[in-house]
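Need C-alpha cells for this chain, all 119 residues.
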Amino acid sequence: MRKAGGIIALIAGIFAVFAAGFTLFVGGLGTAFEAEDSGTIVALGWGGVLFSFVVIVLGAVSMSATSKVPGVLLIISALFGAVLGGTLVAVFMVLALIGGVLTLFEKKPNIPQSGVSNR
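Here are the C-alpha cells for all 119 residues:
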C-alpha cells in the first residue's frame, strides 16, 4: 500500500499545482481590477504552489522509503496545504492526505525466519 499511497499523493500534488495556478490567476485578475482582499488570494495561491510541490516530492520519496517519516511528513504537508492553499487546492490535499495515510499502514510480509517453518 506504500506505493499506492505514494502514487495517489503524486497525482494529487500534480493536480494541486494546477489548482494553485488557477488560484493565482484569479488573484491576479482581482489585483488587476483592484478588488478587495485580492492579495490574500494571491498569497493562498503561492501557499498552494509551495505545498503542492512538497506533496509531489514526498509522494515520490514515500514510494520507496523504508521508514514512516515520509508518510508522516506527507500528512502534515497535506494538512498545511489544505489550510494555506485555498479551496481548490484543499480538495486535492484531501486526496494527498489519503495517500499519506496509506503510506503509513504498510503491511509487512510474513517471511519465515531461517530454519523455522510456519506449520
